[in-house]
Amino acid sequence: MEYILFLYSASLHYKINQSIIIKIIIFFKHVFTYLLSCYNVFKKLNIESRVYMADQFYTMKEAMLYSQRIAQLSKALWKAVEKDWQSWIKPYDLNINEHHILWISYHLKGATISDIAKFGVMHVSTAFNFSKKLEARGLLSFSKRDTDKRNTYVDVTKKGQVLLEEMYDNYHETPHAVLEGSLPIKELYGKFPDFMDVTAVIRNIYGDDFMDIFERSLKNLESTIVAKD
Amino acid sequence: MEYILFLYSASLHYKINQSIIIKIIIFFKHVFTYLLSCYNVFKKLNIESRVYMADQFYTMKEAMLYSQRIAQLSKALWKAVEKDWQSWIKPYDLNINEHHILWISYHLKGATISDIAKFGVMHVSTAFNFSKKLEARGLLSFSKRDTDKRNTYVDVTKKGQVLLEEMYDNYHETPHAVLEGSLPIKELYGKFPDFMDVTAVIRNIYGDDFMDIFERSLKNLESTIVAKD
Fold first, then answer.
1. Pick from A163, A152, A156: which is nearest to A102 by CA?
2. In a domain, A62, yes or no
3. A68–B171 C-beta distance less than 8 A
4. How far apart are CA B5 and CA B28, in angstroms?
């Protein structure tokens, strides 16, 4: 303020056009107001960015712990599942991918290679190559469908069906550590665990159509077993 | 009974020493009693085994559906975890087993090869071979401990620690589909899923000591992150 008064008195002293001085004063006032608002915005942004950082940092710790937990759990679970699966299919000279392809084609009542790749969580080339091997063994057949000329479908042959059904019949001949390890939960709650949170995470990662295929194949398996009763 | 009386009368007839005959009779009585008890046990077992079979048969359908569900879910989850993990460690020229070995040795503050194999769910030879490779890169060191002369311990070197901490710092540089896929659960419940049922199944399969190591390593990770704050 003193500065403005000084300028004003200086203008009186030097007899400069007072209206110009007033314009200069107004100009500086605008500049000052602008700088002040800039400073306030900057200050606010800075606070927000610190809050954001704190938030992010807190989440980072949680995220890290969660990621390590799920990594460890899912590795341990999958390794146990894999071991059970391998010992079940070993007598039939199949690997897990081959059995999974047969399983998917059987329960979806025919599937495209991309269905198999998606639902079997394997690369398209893996799905194709193993399907070709299964075709060579007479367990799968490739065909076009009238309703969908663009895609090639794989279907389980009669020989493949017989093999799969034989495998289901002999399911309990091999050890199933995962099943055994789930029995205390069945005893406690009267049913096997349904892994709601894992299912939700997988739905978010792989999408609704993945889960639809999943439920469809389980329903088909259920009706197959009921039919056999 | 008639047979015993016949034997007795026969002994009188042929004037055989009666005390021997009585011993023989007692012996046969014991044999008969033993056979009868065997038959009863067998009959009981047979009934029980039929009950068990009926029980088993009902459970077989449930068991089959459950096994297929967990196989599919755990494969999908592990493949997503594996993909995230690989993209995180790729810039550091490590594979998942190598990083897992470093991670275990770091968070357990030194570990034996069998600790690593057990907790990392890998074969002992895999744990040993990759540990040797990490030693050659100066990231791990092998040593004996005064408190336990029999086992060889691996510890993360200073260089290894720096590498691991750099990896933690750059954790958010790569995509984490599993973390992203879990955020809606965090939003809904205010925390990340804790996978209680998966944890219980894994505890039953791998035992309490596996879970103890698991919790210990997560606690150490937590305090490491807090210390960095």
1. A156
2. no
3. no
4. 13
